[in-house]
Amino acid sequence: MTTTILSLNTTKIPWADIIEYLQHGTKSKVLLEDGNCRYMLMSLAAESTIAEHTNPRNATLNVIEGQGVLTLEDREIV
What we know:
Elements: H1 15-18, E1 26-33, E2 38-44, E3 70-72, E4 75-77
Antiparallel strand pairs: 1-2, 3-4
């Protein structure tokens, strides 16, 4: 079982309470997970990268703060 931060009844996400600002590396937290979906919060320090990978689930990406480049099927998306 995965520990989640939010409940299904959450209507507003308290970003200031759960975002961590890292000096180095990356950190991910499961915000909410059920039998169909998993919502993750990933915090990345400046100049950090995430290794290329695949995932059996569908995914969406929402940038809350900052900027970066996502490479998807050899296409760079700023």
